[in-house]
Write a structure and sequence with these properties.
By secondary structure, the chain is of the alpha+beta class. The protein has six helices and 24 strands. The two termini are 87 Å apart.
Length: 374
């Protein structure tokens, strides 16, 4: 019995001795974990151009409604609807028969009037000669002189009739008064047309082209103090199309309306754009971007780095000791996928963009810097 008791005591002593062979420090898995990894971006200064956006409408510089100036049946339409035409191109032809006949008749009347005037000139000469010889009477001279005047007046009237007849004959050819794109023909060949028939077709000029947009009085006054010419020189105009893309060609301000709309308190402003590829169409709605030509230097950070709480907007910054800090910021306009910062940050600060949910202020982190994108 004593041997058995000794054996148990010896075993307990060995077990305690083995337990005492450790370093005596308790194991703490949480203290041994590495700092959380985050992605940071260095705050950088970049040039931005303040931009304002407006709803605008495309307008052709020139727009002409083609109309018939004389009565007659429409014989021909000589254009393809929607095609480009040049100044002077023949587009419609009205029957010419009656107008050509009027020209011929006027020419015949001129021949008759010229013969009558010639005879009157001869008679005036004869009677004047007789009167100088005391053979003829003064009354007869006066009579033939008056007839000479009537013949001369008749000739002038017939020449005027010829000019009118030729004008009417010329009006049977309806030509393009401007270069541009012709629209749909409203009246087909074979119909009777005249001055009261309305528009036969419309031509709009294509290149260059206008865009007009309303600007509030407050916005105009904010930049108008230096004069309209300087305003036009300081700003570049861009267009955003319906598919969200930007029109490749920039425009330039060239007109400010002289009156203010009483209903909206806005001024109509106009810009001119090149349109060589006919992308811009008269009446089209676009978004107008008015961009300051001279940029301003400002700090920017990725939009994903911005956080909100009850006190406002803030970002998380990693300091030189790799600790997380909260910085309250005041933001400006967006710059692509970034946002400009007015207050709260300095150039070179490391702003957390990824891993924000895993960290807290004052915590040490392992930061990986990436390049600021656009």
């Amino acid at each position: 019995m004593q041997m058995r008791g000794y054996g148990i005591s010896a075993l307990l002593g060995i077990a305690l001795g083995l337990a005492g062979c450790g370093d005596g420090k308790p194991t703490n898995p949480q203290a041994a974990a590495p700092p959380p990894a985050v992605t940071v971006v260095k705050v950088a200064s970049t040039e931005i151009k303040p931009t304002s956006f407006f709803a605008g409408r495309i307008e052709a510089m020139l727009k002409v409604d083609l109309r018939a100036r004389v009565d007659g049946f429409l014989e021909k339409r000589l254009f393809t609807e929607g095609s480009d035409v040049k100044d002077g191109d023949l587009l419609f032809v009205i029957e010419k028969g009656q107008y050509q006949a009027a020209v011929n008749q006027a020419k015949a009347s001129i021949v008759t009037a010229e013969a009558t005037l010639k005879l009157a000139d001869i008679e005036v000469g004869r009677q004047t000669e007789l009167f100088s010889r005391s053979v003829g009477a003064q009354a007869r001279v006066d009579e033939v002189t008056a007839k000479q005047g009537e013949a001369r007046g008749s000739l002038l009237a017939q020449k005027a009739n010829l000019e009118k007849a030729e004008l009417n004959l010329g009006y049977t050819d309806i030509k393009a008064p401007i270069a541009g794109r012709v629209g749909k023909a409203n009246i087909s060949a074979g119909n009777f047309v005249g001055p009261n028939s309305g528009t036969l077709a419309t031509i709009v000029s294509q290149d260059p082209i206008y865009v007009t947009f309303p600007v509030t009085q407050r916005e105009i006054l904010a930049v108008r103090k230096d004069g309209e010419k300087k305003l036009a020189d300081d700003y570049t105009i861009y267009l955003q199309l319906a598919d969200g893309s930007r029109y490749a060609q920039p425009g330039k301000l060239n007109f400010f309306d002289v009156t203010v709309s009483q209903g909206t308190d806005t001024v109509q402003v106009r810009a001119i754009f090149p349109n060589p590829n006919r992308i811009l169409v008269d009446g089209q709605l676009v978004t107008v971007a008015v961009e300051l030509r001279k940029g301003e230097s400002t700090l920017v950070v990725p939009q994903q780095s911005l956080q909100f709480d009850q006190s406002g907007m803030f970002v998380l910054v990693v300091d030189k000791d790799n600790k997380v800090q909260v910085r309250r910021v005041e933001t400006g306009p967006a710059v692509g996928t970034n946002v400009s910062i007015k207050k709260g940050l300095d150039s070179g600060d490391l702003v957390v963009t990824e891993g924000i949910q895993r960290i807290r202020p004052g915590q040490v982190v392992q930061a990986t810097e990436v390049k600021l994108g656009g």
